[in-house]
Here is the input.
Amino acid sequence: MATQTPPEAPGTPPGLTTNAAPFIEGARARGDLFITQPWEQYSQANHETWAGLFQRMQTRWGRYANHRFLEGIEALALSPDRVPRLEDVNQFLAPLTGFSAKPVAGYVPAYLFFDCLERREFPTTITIRDGRTPDYLPEPDIFHDIAGHVPMHTDPAFADTLVKFGRVSKMAVERLVERGDTPDLRERLASNMRAMARFFWFTIEFGLMRDHTPNSDGGLRVYGSGLLSSHGEIEHAIESPDVQRYPFQLEWVVNQAFEIHHYQPLLYIVEDFDHLFREVNRLEEWVMDGRLDNVAPCEPGISDEEIRLSLEAAREAGRVA
Here is the structure.
């Protein structure tokens, strides 16, 4: 027999649950991308979901997370019981690296996302997943963004790397726009955007790093946010014999397809944050040399709409400049 959810009491906030938030539906209908966080609309169930997710990650973070992430969690003073207010997060974050969490209504087109990173703004989802299915994530949520990504933004070396990546990614688009509407413009742009998505995926989202802290065994730790916000995959990434783990090779990464709907079977290891920054510098060289104009096809797919939005944003930025 199917069960029915009991009706909420009068005056109960409508909630900000992923794919069931009237506030977000309204913002998207109006075409509003950058929004405010209506914190008072989080329901008790939303806060309980945050608390459950935060609590169960404690032992996993202690065992598998990069030490800079653990320092970031402490520096941000995130509440273990309530969905955080982004303005409170930013009060702790901004003095450390100049970064801030910028609330958004949903997916941010690539060029605008890169532009935010360059300006030390991290587009942040404000909804939270349904607590009845905590391991199912139909799209990024505030736990992934704030408890997964943002603690790493407290580290100056990582923050600078993220800013440089945003700048390089914008250059990849602008370089092609400046060449004009050549017959192969869209194909080359899609190739560059695919390469950037792969670099971001295998570093910022699913990156592994050697542990060089004093008295460590030199083993692996997680710095990628997709792993840091997943109770199951953070352990799987380090412990499972089914995962292939290779030293970071730029030529492999930008040509390596990935799929998002299952645990990752292939991960790359950087030595430290200096190593990661050097790879972003190499990525910039490859952009300028045209070496990303024809990377391997397949996932991730770059839609015609994504290309159109990035071209429009880059051209508009050029006119403003």
